[in-house]
Amino acid sequence: MKIFFSLLTIVVVGAGIAVGVDLHDASVQAAAAATPAARPPAQVVVTTLAPRKVRLWSEFSGRLHAIDYAEIRPEVSGYITDVKFADGQLVKQGDLLVVIDPRPYQAAVERDQASLTSAQSKVALAKIQIDRYNGLIQTHSVSQDELDNATNTYQVAQADEQNAQAVLTQAKLDLEHAYVTAPISGRVSRAEITVGNLVQTGVSAPILTSIVSQDGIYADFDVDEQTYLQTIRASAHDSAHEQQVPVQLVVQGDAGHVYEGFIESFDNRIDPTSDTIRARARFANTDGALVPGMFVTARLSSAAEQTVLLVPQRAISFDQSKASVLVVDDSNKVGYRQIELGKTVETDRVVNSGLVAGDRVIVDGVQLVRPDDQVATTEMPAEKNVANISPKSANMP
């Protein structure tokens, strides 16, 4: 019986030892599993900043205006007897547009022509008389008073002739104005007053129609003072250089069609209430698609190329009004840089401060790292320097 209890004790103790060994091994394995392996450096894509020469563009809202615009008003009174154009027709300078009853003016021309002929006859007669008296005065056949009277009659006749000539000229001009012609070439509007209506001259004379020129078009827009000083005045020192500043034009709803033009002029003063200066650009409008009155977006280029640092927009993080990027130093350690941004150029932003040439900025993988992390880097392919880049948007904060 003692032998049985001894054996039983040995079995129980052995089982306890075995269980203790298994529990120790399990705790060692659990501890090993709870200890993470050293994390490998995150893989990021960086771009090394280098100066690039670009034209910087700014966007402004504007309106289109015709280079030449004429409102056609009657210069003589009368009934309209004929309209010689169709609504929207292209006309040339001198083309007949409207006829105002010319008969009264034709009659006036004939009457005044007769008056002139009569005046000319009186001048001729007075000239004969004075020539005769000049001969007779030598023989004392006429007195000096008679010669003086003849001379006066001749001078009065000449004045009457000049007056008759002026009246006839005005009559001919009135007759000419009865046939209303186009003062400029372009596209005519509709006939505002039709056949059979009476029109009067004067300050309240009605508009018969209007014409806008088709040989180009103006875009007028306001440029803020800072842009004017930094991009225009800094490099364009006179109006000749200003007219070399390129401008692009985009019509709302047709952003894919860009019209190319140049500055025509800037105003002579900055408006103190808005801190802007009026600008005018000229465009060829060869297809006639640009119509006066259109609301457009004008993209104004700097007068010369500028050397700037560009950073891809996807590399930039924003915290309220602050912009920042992550950079990698020579030991592949991540650092934080707060930056000041300039204009947008395609998919990049101009960096005004906070970065220098040679800095390596993280472009892809920004979400995977934090400052002071060690990273493995891959260089983004360097983009070719571009001399003239047009923005998708500009003047962004």
Structure in words:
- The strands form five sheets. Strands 1, 18, 19, 20, 21, 22, 23 and 24 form an eight-stranded mixed beta sheet that branches. The chain has a six-stranded antiparallel barrel with strand order 3-12-15-14-13-16. It has a four-stranded antiparallel beta sheet with strand order 4-11-9-6, with no helix packed on it.
- Helix content is 29%, strand content 34%.
- It has three domains: 45-54 and 306-379, Beta Barrel (conserved putative lor/sdh protein from methanococcus maripaludis s2 fold), CATH 2.40.420; 58-66 and 217-301, Efflux pump adaptor protein, beta barrel domain (Elongation Factor Tu (Ef-tu), domain 3, Beta Barrel), CATH 2.40.30; 69-211, Beta Barrel (OB fold (Dihydrolipoamide Acetyltransferase, E2P)).
- It contains five helices and 24 strands.
- The chain is of the alpha+beta class and 397 residues long.
- It has helices spanning 2-34, 103-136, 144-177, 225-233, 239-242; strands at residues 42-48, 52-54, 57-66, 69-72, 78-83, 90-91, 96-100, 179-181, 186-188, 198-199, 209-212, 217-224, 246-251, 254-266, 276-283, 295-301, 306-308, 310-312, 317-319, 322-328, 334-345, 348-353, 360-364, 375-379.
